[in-house]
Write a structure and sequence with these properties.
A: 299 residues; mainly alpha; 13 helices; globular; disordered N terminus; B: 235 residues; alpha+beta; 60s Ribosomal Protein L30, Chain: A; Alpha-Beta Plaits; 2 domains; six-stranded mixed β-sheet; four-stranded antiparallel β-sheet; 7 helices; 31% helix
Chain lengths: 299, 235
């Protein structure tokens, strides 16, 4: 798949160390020496455009998902925030609202960029868009940060998993939050080690998070979980930028995440049979939707 | 990767390809395994079928059957049958657009189909009347695996240009096909042969490193003991 020899697992710490030794950002280090680095940046530019489009679509309100559980909450929250009643400040509040909006766009069959999965697609766009609006950033820096986020995701995929069915939601929203945190550190001028600490700090706060979609659909609790996970990413990035370090190195946190995922019972790994999916209300919604499927199926 | 840091560039090129996969795909939501994957399988079926589809019967198994409706899986599959990409904005309206274009389709939910949790089957009928049955699984992240074609086991991931040869299980047929490939200096990445009974119908699937051209496909089809050839571009 990646050409890495099996016995030599990818190490984020090594990559971070090498980037730091070259006095480069993680994305800069990844791009240096590639035969056509511009190709990757152009591709990231396209994906960023899709992310923004999905955010705007989600913010437009007027959404209806096939499961019927989406309620335009991104728009609702952003309106509330704009009326200056919010507990969060402008940046953090907008980031949470944007993450809801992108996830709602996904749930309503809009076009999104999976980052790293469709179920966790709101977190990275929201964090980067929030920072882009609040600070004087160049759009090209976002394309770079998307690469840095992707590097974190690649190492998580290599050492653990990015599939909720295998590792629970810590592997989806947890991974996305770690990826967003590392990218945010790079966007704000932090070092590669700080980016690694941000990823570790964020991921640690998600260990054990279960994947429990009601009726098996990417709606409840996924959409709002994207919103709150985006706040985690911002918090972890801010800690790392302040010089706070993760005592446990990032690779070891990722390995711990893999071990926790393997220990999760099947009911808590995207089966729709555990967590809030198994709550009385979750089950009622699932039964209602199953009846609709039966009535419409030609079986 | 250890020891490679700071030296060989290829390693970053590989990791960068992985990064591009992780930060994507661009797709119509809500699920890479239940929306994008099934669309790709249906797209593969359309490619392999090679002639206009008159009608289709789609069986969604396992989790696709249980939660497919809420994930827009029927729309995704029909969109794939019409040759649309997984980020085509028409996907949510695929059912009505297919109906108005005259494509007949039936979607059946059968939670107990096959062994894979996300398995599905697609039966296609053309107007000559040709038929084909494809079974496949959606592996997650938009990745798919073709499990069987017309009842012959395959294991194809749609990552290479692929040649599928229906043939009689006789000595020399495989050599005939690979001979044509080697004449053109085309390299085989992976190949496998499946048969139902010795000496009867067999099916060979070949994944190529290089693109296949129409002339080659025609010549493979003209080989003795070869009954039909299907081709698929990388998905």
């Amino acid at each position: 798949m990646t050409g890495w020899e099996e016995e030599e697992r990818a190490s984020l710490s090594e990559l971070i160390g090498a980037a730091q030794a070259h006095q480069m950002t993680l994305s800069g280090f990844m791009l240096q020496g590639l035969s056509d680095p511009e190709r990757h940046l152009v591709e990231m530019k396209k994906r960023w455009a899709v992310m923004i489009e999905s955010m705007e679509e989600g913010c437009s309100g007027n959404l209806r998902s096939s499961g019927g559980m989406v309620a335009g909450d991104g728009r609702r929250y952003l309106d509330y925030l704009a009326s200056s009643k919010g507990l969060l400040d402008g940046l953090t509040g907008r980031v949470m609202g944007y993450a809801l909006a992108v996830s709602e766009c996904n749930a309503t069959m809009g076009r999104i960029c999976a980052a790293p999965t469709a179920g966790s697609c709101g977190i990275i766009p929201a964090v980067f868009r929030g920072l882009f609006e609040s600070y004087d950033l160049e759009e090209r820096a976002i394309h770079h940060a998307l690469i840095t986020a992707g590097v974190i995701g690649s190492i998580i995929a290599e050492r653990a998993t990015l599939a909720g069915a295998e590792g629970g939601c810590q592997a989806e929203c947890g991974a996305a939050s770690a990826m967003a945190a590392a990218g945010a550190v790079e966007l704000m001028g932090g070092s590669p080690p700080a980016a690694g600490h941000a990823a570790a700090l964020s991921l640690k706060s998600f260990l054990g998070l279960v994947c429990d979609p009601v009726a098996g659909l990417v709606e409840v609790p996924c959409i709002k979980r994207n919103g709150i996970a985006a706040l985690h990413a911002l918090g972890a990035a801010d800690l790392a930028l302040a010089g706070v370090e993760s005592v446990i190195p990032v690779d070891e946190v990722i390995d711990a995440m893999a071990a926790v995922g393997a220990a999760l019972p099947r009911t808590l790994r995207e089966t729709g049979e555990g967590g809030v999916a198994a709550s009385p209300t979750g089950r009622r919604i699932a039964e209602r939707l199953a009846d609709v499927t039966k009535a419409e199926g030609e079986d | 990767m250890r020891g490679a840091i700071g030296t060989p560039r290829e390693n970053y090129a590989d990791l960068m390809e992985e990064v591009m996969t992780i930060m994507g795909p661009v797709m119509i939501g809500p699920s890479s395994s239940h929306t994008a994957g099934p669309l790709k399988l249906a797209f593969a079926a359309r490619e392999l079928f090679g002639v206009p589809i008159m009608s289709a019967r789609i069986v969604l198994g396992g989790s696709l059957g249980a939660t497919g409706k809420g994930h827009g899986t029927p729309q995704a599959v029909v969109a794939g049958l019409m040759g649309w990409a997984s980020d085509d904005r028409r996907v949510p309206r695929a059912l009505e657009l297919a109906r108005s274009s005259g494509l007949k389709f039936e979607v059946v939910y059968a939670p107990k189909l096959g062994n894979h949790p996300n398995e599905m089957s697609i039966d296609l009928t053309g107007d000559d009347p040709q038929t084909m049955r494809l079974r496949g699984a959606s592996l997650g992240g938009g990745k798919v695996q073709l499990l069987s074609v017309d009842g012959f086991k395959v294991s194809l991931f749609g990552t290479f240009p692929t040649l599928i040869v229906y043939m009689l299980d006789r000595p020399g047929v495989i050599a005939g096909v690979t001979g044509l490939l080697s004449e053109r200096d085309l390299n085989v990445a992976f190949m496998s042969v499946a048969r139902k009974r010795k000496g009867e119908d067999a099916l060979m699937s070949i994944e190529m490193d290089d693109d296949l051209d129409d002339d080659l496909i025609e010549r493979v089809g003209q080989l003795r003991q070869v009954k039909r050839v299907r081709v698929m571009s990388p998905l």
